[in-house]
Amino acid sequence: MKAAPATDALPLFSWPEQTEIAVLDAERRSLIARIGKMRICSERRVKLEAELKRLTEEQLRLSSRLTGKRK
Asked: What residues contact residue 44 under an 8 Å CB cut-off, 6+ apart?
């Protein structure tokens, strides 16, 4: 019988980062929905798109830090 493939240990001590990533994801989804309802030329839409970009960058930074810990 073949042995099960080795898996990474569960990131038990990274739950604060995982929670923050989930919060950022929820905020991003909310912004995407709001942006979708606005006119393309709206000044408010441009500001929200900049905020969306900032949230995405922060989420990616946290995610890469989290995966870097596991390696």
From this structure: 38
Residue 5 belongs to some domain of the structure: no
DSSP assignment string, 1-15: -PPPPP-PPP-GGGH
Q: Which residue, among 53, 23, 25, 57, has the nearest Cα to 45 in the 3D structure?
A: 53
Question: Within the chain, where are the H helices?
Answer: 15-36, 43-70
The burial class, CB within 10 Å (0-12 / 13-18 / 19+), for 24 is buried
- 4 assigned to some structural domain: no
Domain membership flag for residue 63: yes
7-62: per-residue pLDDT in tens?
454 566 778 889 999 999 999 999 999 999 999 999 999 999 999 999 999 999 99
53 in a domain, yes or no? yes
